[in-house]
Design brief:
The chain has 305 residues and is an alpha/beta fold. It has helices at 2-23, 121-130, 144-165, 167-179, 181-208, 216-242, 248-267, 271-291, 296-304, and strands spanning 28-30, 35-37, 40-42, 47-49, 52-54, 57-59, 64-66, 69-70, 74-76, 81-83, 88-89, 93-95, 100-102, 107-108, 112-113. It folds into 2 domains: 2-22 and 133-304, no CATH class; 25-120, no CATH class. Helix 3 (144-165) runs antiparallel to helix 7 (248-267), helix 6 packs across helix 7 (248-267) and helix 7 packs antiparallel against helix 8 (271-291).
Length: 305
């Protein structure tokens, strides 16, 4: 199982970056004189409204530029909203992370929230920027290779700390992974799928509430803890095959480093692919952690023998 994961990751190094770079982010545009009936939405694609939208304009992290009319609300949760001098919005304008840039004669009928990004919004906006392919004209943003390397080093340090603090639990997860790799992968992928299905709507509801907004970032960080634990268990299984004579903490660090290296290279040019591969790989360790009760069951079974 470990060998095939390494082979798949190596294949994605060659295929994923080129595919992702070829995609790019094409802006969603409503041209001058055009009338779009209904709500307009995107995840990260930029939106340019020169004509008229008879409905709401919403994006999670994309930039929204309004040069025409919007008969509804304009919302970008962590992206920037730009209102030109001829912009006319009959509803509200809301940006939680990227802020609102408003020209002098732009008109907003109801209210405008986000001219100054809220607390925590800058962090979410930076994360959203990392998950988007780099485009020309984005020279002010930190380069993706630097961000990817920094995030890799942080994860590696956290994983090493986890291996040092809970060595017996990590050993139990590694044992469960070796005994039942297929079941571990199935449980891990199912948990990841169900978690994403529930977390995304929940995050959206929290983001819409100014009271719950400060809880969004801690919630996202807490969700990563089981994946970090699974990553360490997976890294120990791999590290002991590469360096069988090393101490457990060092073997775990080596294994985690081998797993993170290709993800870091992919993240330098295709961060979305890197993130998807990270959760796919760590789901294997997550499933083993679930099956072993956080490593406790595997150790108990070993002790009883």
């Amino acid at each position: 199982m470990i060998r095939w994961m390494v082979i798949l990751l190596a294949g994605f190094i060659a295929l994923a970056p080129g595919y992702a770079l070829a995609q790019g982010l094409r802006p969603i545009t409503v041209n001058i004189g055009e009338v779009f009936h209904g709500d307009l939405a995107s995840i990260s694609e930029p939106m340019i409204i020169v004509g008229t939208v008879d409905g709401d304009v919403t994006s999670w992290s994309g930039t929204i530029t309004v040069l025409g009319e919007v008969h509804g609300d304009v919302v970008s949760y962590v992206g920037t909203i730009r209102l030109g001098p001829d912009a006319r919005v009959t509803g509200s304008v809301l940006s939680l992370g990227g802020g609102v840039l408003r020209a002098e004669h732009a008109r907003v009928a109801v209210r405008m929230l986000g001219e100054n990004p809220l607390t925590g919004g800058v962090v979410r906006a930076s994360t959203a920027t990392f998950l988007q392919p780099q485009r020309e004209g984005a020279a002010a943003a930190p380069p993706l290779p630097l961000i990817s390397t920094a995030m890799t080093m942080i994860v590696l340090l956290l994983a090493s700390a986890c291996a040092a603090i809970w060595p017996r639990r990590v050993r139990g997860v590694s044992m469960a992974l070796r005994r039942a790799p297929g079941r571990s992968l199935a449980f891990g992928l199912l948990t990841t799928f169900l978690g994403a299905t529930l977390l995304l709507p929940l995050s959206g509801l929290i983001a819409l509430s100014l009271v719950g907004l400060p809880l969004l970032l801690p919630l996202v960080l807490v969700v990563q803890i089981p994946y970090l634990f699974g990553l360490v268990g997976l890294g120990l299984s791999l590290g002991e095959r590469i360096r069988p004579n090393d101490p457990q903490i060092k073997a775990a660090a080596v294994g985690v480093g081998v797993l993170l290296l290709p993800l870091s290279l992919i993240g330098a040019v295709a961060p979305r692919w890197s993130l998807a591969l990270f959760y796919a790989a760590t789901s294997l360790g997550l499933g083993a952690a679930i099956l072993s009760g956080g490593g406790a069951y595997a150790l108990r079974a070993r002790t009883e023998r």
